[in-house]
Each structure stands twice: as C-alpha cells, then as structure tokens.
Amino acid sequence: MKTSFILGAVTVAGLTAGAAFAGTLDDVKARGKLNCGVSTGVPGFAEPDANGVWQGFDVAVCRAVAAAVLNDSDAIEFVPTTGKTRFTALASGEIDMLARNTTWTFSRDVDLKFEFVGVNYYDGQGFMAKADLGVSSATELDGATVCIQTGTTTELNLADFFRSNNMSYEAVPVETGSEAVTNYMAGACDVFTTDRSALAARRANMENPNEHVVLPEIVSKEPLGPLVRHGDNNWGDVVRWTLNALITAEELGVTAANVAEMAKGTKIPEMNRLLGSEGNLGEMLGLDADWAHRAIAVSGNYGEIFENNIGASTIIGLARGVNAKWTDGGLIYSPPFR
Amino acid sequence: MSDNRNSFVRHEMLSERAPPVGERGVLKWARENLFSSVFNTIMTIVSVWVIYSIAVGVAPWFFNGVWNAETTRECYEILDGVNGACFAVLRERFPQLIYGFTYPSSEYWRPNLATVLLLVALAPVLFRRLPKGLLVFTVIYPFLAYWLIWGGSILIPTVAFVGCFIGVACYKKFSSGAFVTAITLSLISAYLCWFLGGYLISWNDAFLSLEIVPSRDMGGFMLNLLLGTIAVSLSIPLGIALALGRQSNMPIIKWICVVFIEFIRGVPLITLLFVANVILAFFFPPETSIDLILRVIIMMTFFNSAYIAEVVRGGLAALPSGQYEAANSLGLDYSQSMRFIILPQALKISIPGIVNVSVGMLKDTTLVSIISMFDLVGMIRGPILSSTDWNGVYWELFGAAAAIFFVVCFTVSKYSQWLERQLETGKH
Amino acid sequence: MSTSQISRRDNFQLSMLLNDKRYRSYTFQFFALIILICIMAYLGKNLLENLAAAGLNISYSFLGEASGYDINQRLIEYNSQSTHLRAAFVGVLNTLLVAFLGCIMATIFGVTAGILRLSNNWIVAKLMMIYVEIFRNVPVLIWILIIHSVFLTILPQPKAFRGENPEASMLWDAFAFTGRGIYIPKPVFYDGSLIVIATFILSIIGVFAFRNYSRKKLYDTGQLIETRWTSVVIFFVPTLLVYFVMGNPIGLEYPELKGFNFKGGIYARGSLISLWFALSIYTGAFIAEVVRAGIQSVNQGQSEAAGALGLRSNLVMNLVILPQALRVIVPPLISFYLNITKNSSLALAVGYMDITGTLGGITLNQTGRAIEAVLLLMLFYLVISLSISAIMNVYNRSIMLKER
Predict the structure, then answer these.
(1) pLDDT tens for residues B197-224?
(2) C269, containing H or E segment
C-alpha cells in the first residue's frame, strides 16, 4: 500500500533506486533488478551491440549474478561508468557490483573500502606501437609519446616503468579508451598503453591489425575482477561464489548445454553440491538450491564465456595463457564447493 | 502666351536615360559593397578565397558520402579510395543518437508526441497573440509529458494534477484572507488529494498504462532536450524568487540569495555535475539513493536559476523607481505590487535574456557526457565510437551532433531576437 | 495622541509578528533562517551517517602524499614523486595559462568579427554573421572535440618530417607544426643578455616619454612633432646596437627532430592549442555580438559629428566610437572572460591537464577522495571567479567615472 503519493510516483519514474546500504541482497531481490556497473565500452569485455544489448566478458559475470539471485539474466540495469565515476557509483550505492575490468590493488581494497570478490582475468599492462615505428621492446621507448586512458592504474604503472628504466616520456591523457585509439591512430602518440587484453581487443578492431604490434614487455600485474562494497559480506559472498561457480563448472565440465542434465544428480559429489541436488549451499547464501545451475545456464562456464567473448575464435582473439584453469597450468582456480 | 512663341519649350519630358554602367545593377552593388576601397577589395578577395577553400575541402567529402553500408570497412570499400564521408553510421545509429540505446524502439512515438505537444504547449507562452485559452494546455502539459515519457498508469499524473489544481484553487479562495492561512490550507488540501489518490493508484495501477521506461534508459538527443526543458522550466520560478530575494530589504533573505547566486555562478557546471555524480548521494538519507538523472536535474536547475536570477534582477533594476512608488502609493502590499505592477513589466524586459540563458543551458546539457551519461555526445563518445562496426568514423557523427544542436538553438535564438524587436517597438 | 502611540507600542501582541508589517519581516527571516539551518543540519547528518556507514572520513592528508603520476605540461618543477598538492598547483597554473591565452585570443576574434560584421563589405559582413551564428549555437564541448580532431588530422605527425624526402617540412627550419603540437624556437640567454633586455625596456620607456613630450609640446605650443618614425627608431636601434656590441648574447634554440619527437624549443601541446583555440573562437562569437551591439549603441550623430570635424574613418572609430562603445562592451566582456575560465574545465575532453584534470581527475581517481577533491576544485574556481570579477569591476568603474 502506498502511503505517500509522491514517493510512489518517483518510484515509478525509476528515480529512486531503493535502499542502498541495508542488505544489498535483500535490496536487489526487492527491486527485482541488479544494478551492475560496467565500462562505457571495451570491445569483448563490455559493449552494447547495435540493438543496445550489453555483451561481453564482464557483462557475463553480471548476468550470471542476476540469474543466480533473480532468476532472470536480463533483470539488470547496466550502469556505464568511466574511470572517474566507477568507485563513487559503487560507494554511494548507485550500483550493487562493479564488473568493469578493475585492477585489484591494496589501496582500493583497504583505503577505498571495497571488496574484490575474485579475479576473472589476470592481465598486465602492455604497449602497442605501429609496426613501421620499428620498435621491438618497451625499453626502446625513451622520449616516446604515450597515449593513456586517465583514471586507471595504468597511469601509475607507466610513471613507475619509465622512472625505473630512467627514460623520459610524454603522456597524452585521454578520457575514454576509444578516444585513446582515435588519438593513437591519428598519430598523436607513438605508443598506446593499457591492459594487454584491451590492447588485443582494440588491435583486433583496427582496420589493419597487422600494422600494429603489441610489445613483449608486461610492465605490471593487473588482476581484474568484480568488486562490491566493504561491509556487506553476505552480498560479497553471493558475487564471489557465483564467480567461483562459473570457474568450478569449467573444472567439472559443466557447460551451458549439459547443466540441466547434470543438475538432476551425478556421481560427482562436488557437482551435486554445486548444482543443488545435494547439500544446502544455496540456502546458506540466502538463495535457493538452483542458483548455480541458473548462473551457469546463462552463458556457460568460465571457459565458455571466455571463448565466446574474447577467446581465440572471436575477433578479439585472446589466448587463455595464464587465464587457463589451474589443471592446465593457468591461474584460474576456485576454492572447493564444500 | 504669345511671348512664348519665340522660345522653345519642350512639351513632353525626355525619357530617363539609364545610369552609367558603373552606377547600376550588379556592378554598382559590387563596387559599393565589395570593392569600395583597397582594403575592402583585399577583404573581399580573402573572403572569397576562404569560402572557396572550405567548399573545395568539404564538398567532395560531403557529396561522395556513403549512406548505405553496415560497417566502416564496407564504407571504405564502396568509396574505394575516394575522399568521402561515411554517413551510413548516421543512418544505422539514428535511433541511438536520438533516443539512446535502451529506450524501447516500439515506444519511440511517445517522446516524439511529447516533443510535438511541447511546441503546442509553448506556443501561447512564446507568442502573445495566440488566444489565452491555450494556456490551459500549457498547465496540463507537464503531467501529460511525464506520462508519455516515463509511462505507467495515467492515474499518477492525473492525481498529481488534481492535487495541484485543488491546492491552487484553495489558495485562490482564501487568498483574500491571511496569506499564511491560505497557504496552509492549500497545502493540506493538495496533500489530502495526493494521499487519497495514492490509494486509488494502488487499487488500479494498470489503468490506461503505458510501458514504464526508467530514466536510466533515456539517452541521445532526447536526454539533452529532456534535461534542458525540465531544468529550464523549474529554474524560471526559482530564478525569479532568487532575484526578488536579492532585491529584498530583509538582510538574511538577501544574503542567502546573494551567496547562493554568486556561488553557483562562480563555479563551472562540470564541477556541479561532479557534485551530482559523486557527492550528492552522500547527502541523502542512507535508505534512499536518488537516481543520477534526478541529481543532475537538481544541479542543472540550481545552475540555471542563478543565471536567470541575474537576468530578472536586471529587469527589475531597469524599471523606473516611479513604478515601485506608484504601487506603494496605491496601498498595494509587497506581493500585490510585485504580482500586478513590477513583475509583469520586469519579466517582459527579461524574456530575451531568459531565452538566451536557456539556450545556453540546452547546450550545456552535453556536459553530462563527461559523467558517463549517454546523451547525444555521450552516445557518440561512448558506445558508437568504440563499437566494432563503426571504427574510425568521427567527423560524420560530430558534424551531425553539431547540426542537430545548431538547428534547435538557432531557431530559439532567432525567436529571442524577434521577441527583442517586438518589445522594442512596443516601447515607443 | 502621544499616549495612544506609547500604549500601542506597549501592547505588543504575539499576533503582530504575523500581521503587523513592521514585525512580519522579522518573523519571516527568522523562519527562513531556521529552515536553512534545519536543511543544513539534515544534510550534514546524512553525510556523516553515510560516511560512517561506508567507513570513510573527510581528510585532506592525501594532499601531502606522493602523487605517483606524471603531468605532461608543467610550468613548475614536478615529477611523479611530488605531492598531490603540487600536482594541483601544476593544474592551477595550466588552467590560468589557457584561460589567460583564451581571453586574449577571444577578444581579438570577437572585436575583429564584431567590427567586420558592421563592415559595408557585404561578403565580409555575411561571413562574419555565419561565423557568429554557427559558433554560438553549437555546444562548446562539441567544438572542443571537433577542433581537437581537426588539429590531430590536418597537421602532419612528426613521422612525416622524417626520412630522405619528408612529406612535411619545418617552416624556415624554426617552426614545426605537428599534430602533437607546435614547436617554436626558444630564446636562450647567455652572459650579457641582461643588458640587452634592460636596454629594450629602457627604449620602451623612452618611446612613451617621447610621445608624452610631443603631446605636451602640441598642447603647449601647437607645434606638431612627427612621432611615428622617431618612435620606431627609438624602439629598435638602441637594442639592436647593444645586441651586436655585446656579441649576440641572446640566441635561439631551434626544435629538432630527435628520436620519436621534436626536441628543444617551446612546445605548445596539441591539447593546449586545440582547447585554447576552441574556447577563444567559441567565446569570440559571443564577444562579436557584444561588440556589434556596443558600436551600434553609439549614436549615429557621434560619428557624423566626428566626420564633420574632418576625422578619417579609422580615427572616428578609435577616438570617438570605441571609447563610448567600451562602456557598453566591458561589463558583458567580464562575464565572457569568466566563462572562458570556467569552460576551460572542459579540458579533460582533450586531455589537457588543468586543475580539473589533475585534482579533479587523476588525483580524485587514484585517492578516491571525491568529496574533498571536488570541494577544493569548487573553491578554486570560486576564488578565481570572484577575483576576476573584482578586478574587472574596478576597471569598469574607472571607465564609468568619465560618464557625465
């Protein structure tokens, strides 16, 4: 029953996002929508397609969480954020989780009071240069002009890298990734630096990808992952274990195609616990037993999401590399479902 | 008469001789307007050269433009090395540029209709020759536009309108008595109406319901127009109040208004948008978090009202003091003298200024792209420029954005100039 | 009579606070103050609660920490080990630089276009009208973006200067116009350059003294002394003499293509130039309208009277019309200068590192101190705005004093 008309009208207009600090899980359920912060457009990771539907590797995490919590992978409000707005959007409660290739660092975790729930992509900062520049290593870049997206850790890494190698450089700071590419293509800078995954994505998008080389140096560690606010451990658990469910699903061989069948019960105890035919893990999270089943059913397990969005078969063409599952010698590893 | 016989007097006029070649037609015009002095001749040649070089640079690019293609690569293939634009991006992304990329495409008629009705609603305000009866529609319009753009049951705007109507009616009825009583009574009656209406709405919230579109889903030029219109219409009453407050002889009121106006005018809009984006949420109670679009509207309204206040203050100052004295000598109190004597005249002088400020506001709505809202510019800088299909298309998009803004703003500023001329002739 | 007045004053009733005009304004103000305080307290309470809930606090200690990032254009010594406060200062100076340059250029554009719009040359007047209308009616952000990309694409990149048969070459081997910015020669001062500079300053003073003398002579005796050529001689000859006598103590450092970029000389970055140009051409269009209105506001009779006195048309403009038009032009001009300063905050669209880019951009992002940084940013702009309008008001008053 509406007691106050004004509030009612405002709610209808979608102008209030409801409670922000109480319990995020309850808020999301009450609202029936997950507010998920994404970037304003990085090919393969998060970008709206021609119909305005958000697609990508980071978006898939949002969709999995929405499916697990709300039983609807489309019940998401995608909130585009820039490097500047992302943390305040999360801190002020405008978004429930941030899935926007954000680097897990000490100060963001501790000082900015966020909780990184895991790593969904192990990245490192690299450089891309035009092939005809004749540069084969980042250590030859003394005096170069570098295009860089502001508001990210790449700025600090860049300053550190050039200082430690005793080189000088000229930074061309740019607001968005696509403008950085525009600048780079126009020749306003010699090299473009950002995470290597994004470099690969941008390079794949260029008219003649072969005219550009990604230099071999990796100048930083960039563990990218979704994050939530500090202090709401329940919600943090939901997002963390949804991500882990996707990773575990790959380990156990659960795919979007066979998840329905597997959920009926198998001989593997961990799979049964994961998919809810055994134990009550979902209930412990505050969800129902089928949560992981739904999360996996949206766009498959971690491996499938990777392959479909940024993998070797896509235009982005990233190899699994360190992002292979641990049994294949990679770093992608989930704690057990027990 | 007989004397005249010796002398010859021509009886009919000679036909006029044509002026010398240099004194007529194109040549005269050209000599007077283009080559009247050495300096002028140089200027003419330079201007012609400027026009020529711009035309030579732009014309092939424009006329070779490709309108039918799916991607940039296809565009380049069709152009086949010829210098030409790729206007196909405008064609393919047109709905995104105008409505943003999440507004449901089946509902595009709603903002379209709202825009057309906006013109109808504005007409009686803008052109004073039109019958005053049309103002009724202007009063209804905000509620109608809300229903059209955001959707939901028509009961919500209806109840809101009825509440406002009853409140105003109540005030009118009791305004002969004490001011405080009238205001209190009208507020109470309006609130009662809304309160009861709330029950009505919850009883049947699907009545004449349009699909609900949350404000997050609005974008493109529609968002610019929406923000501009709402901010301008809210800021006019606020601006008038601020201007009156600044002129008031009550020191506390005066200083509150002065500090507010000077503060807002002293900082760039972008910092206010940062406030809307990153700070304002911290000032609302923890249970509610108000949507970004509403926070932006609040800040833009504040921003615009400070500028409008200064324009209105200019209008108030321009009135001869005799008008104030005449009002006082008639025994009118403050609110009466303002309502019947001062404001009608002051606002009449200020309208061109208010229109200019409002055009500025509409242009400034593009700044929301910096705080990651997808207005026309944000749409271009964000999703479209970074999309895989339309890589490297830049001029066409920004050119189109500039053209859209130019058409709207130019029309409005022409109106303001026309109005200024109208007012000038009215004065003499 | 007097008793009744006294008794009325004595019989102060509470209802008079509402109904008596003398007291009602106090009541009204009192309530306004109470409401204001309540709103402030409410917002403050919310802020504290929200901060506590998010585990944050308000602290400006981040200003003393090392910033960790580099800034390309720095007018003072700065590196990534400097503090955030110093980064903010670098940004402040960059803002002031672009605002200062923008004001000068916008005035030039605006005055030129405003006068030319009234020119009796039809094509020039129309061209200026088109300029004014096009630039006034499109948002400045779009202009900044468009002009930045024009700059980027039209000018050749340093690569084009390289090789045996370069596509582009430097102008007189001294100026390089590249898409990354413009390089111009930089003066280098050797021993003895101080004397040359001193001579130069002295000759400027000399020119003014000479002009004063000739004017005084003209007023006192009616004798007209030729000033133009004498001034030129006083201006150039002593400085040049000293310059050669001292053995060329001031040299020029020319930009040279070294490695990836040009080195040496003065480097005006592309972001500075495009922002500067965009702001000035945009504001220039507004100034042009003000200048036109100012000139038109001067009564036609004034120019006719001046013409009747035998003044030539440029003298009519300089001596009669402009001084009177200035009174109309200057007040709006001040607000346009303020607008340039405020609009320079759009620098972040082209990556120019002004105060919004350093303090309100990278520092805010890296430290996450949004509230503190934005408040400091607003304070800065407020101080700048208020001081510019204060300075300009003083100037304005000095012009207005001449009015009768």
Answers:
(1) 777 777 766 677 777 787 777 888 989 9
(2) strand C266-269
